[in-house]
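User: Can you model how XIL sits in this protein?
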Amino acid sequence: MTLTVKSVARVSLVSTLVLATVGAAVLAASPASGAASTLAAAAQQSGRYFGTAVAANKLGDSTYVGILNREFDMVTAENEMKMDATEPNQGQFSYGNADRIVNQARNQGKRIRGHALAWHSQQPGWMQNMSGTALRNAMLNHVTQVASYYRGKIYAWDVVNEAFADGSSGGRRDSNLQRTGNDWIEAAFRAARAADPGAKLCYNDYNTDNWSHAKTQGVYRMVQDFKSRGVPIDCVGFQAHFNSGNPVPSNYHTTLQNFAALGVDVQITELDIEGSGSTQAQQYSGVTQACLAVARCTGITVWGIRDTDSWRASGTPLLFDGSGNKKAAYTSVLNALNAGTGTTTPPTSTTTTTSNPGGGGCTATYSEGEKWNDRFNGQVTVSGTDNWIVTVTVSSPQRIIATWNTSASWDSANVMTARPNGSGNTFGFTIMHGGNWNWPAVSCRVA
Ligand code: XIL
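Assistant: Here's the modeled complex, given as structure tokens:
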């Protein structure tokens, strides 16, 4: 079995030497085409957006609006679309401040993320005091009314915000909405889909950045369950509020990749990182690179423009200083966006992803192998049974070109079915990546 592995690696290395030369020539030529000079333009080079939270009461500040118009192509209302703002009295809707933001953005050709239709926080007083069926119906009516009002104008809605508990439980947060029944989240998503079929529907939360945290796993299981039952969910938002007590995790790319492998887009929705200077700048570029390394990470939004605009201004967590000057963090994000995808530097993560823990009677764990310009190796270890069937799904333009320690067949270009061949419970494969470094999705069941 070792022989097979080695021969695959050797074949790959020989062809890589040739391709490395070609790749170097392409890379050397690319800077001549010119790097983009704004965040939005730099993000657009890879088909992504770069957004910011906007406050309606700052739209008269010319420095603020100047930076907004120049740098960003996606806008989130910081507070103006929340439940307390849009339905201050039951059945009486108020869109003035939200519309100011929406109109300013649309006049400038920017898109809009809607935030947020249902949340335990920033509820109007009348709703805070409600419970049971009356609250469930009021929540669904709110989702329907607000999503209908903005139908056709919203790129993605945060349908439900912050519904999971912090700490080790991995379960739901207690709230008046949660107490109306565990299905409140899927009910909200169904109502939003009916009201605006063109908007992407996201679940949005914080402290879900570290793959090993229970809260991250809890949200992952919910999204997996929604996808398996056809609940309409299109995206997961990662708020990404970081500071020294909650730093950018080293496995961020793993988290984004594993969620994307469930068949949803991922978005960084409220990014801010407390700190200053090169430490802050490095963390910002790390987050940017993690998004760029995941094909379905469609964009990044920062939670405000200047440090003084921030909801946690004392932590100076944003890309512009109080006078509107670009900080080191700005330059590091811009450079990371301009470096983009398709360089010869693959993501460096070496952590693992698992699928079906217990669910299919076994667990399949993926881990990265060697990487080359044109291909990478991966391996899967199965536990829980010796009699497994593992499905490995790669995403276009990737294709699997070799396997070892398994008996495998392909029933379509992207889906491989692997079974034991007497070599134990770890098998490997080589994927031609075509510039897409995403990990395959793996799942296993007992034969
Ligand atoms: C914050 C706003 O920035 C503040 O102005 C407001 O006082 C409180 O809410 N998670 C979210 C955002 O989803 O809506 C929050 O925004 C920050 C945390």
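A couple of observations from the model: The two ends are 23 Å apart (CA to CA). The longest helix spans residues 2-29.
User: Helpful, thanks.
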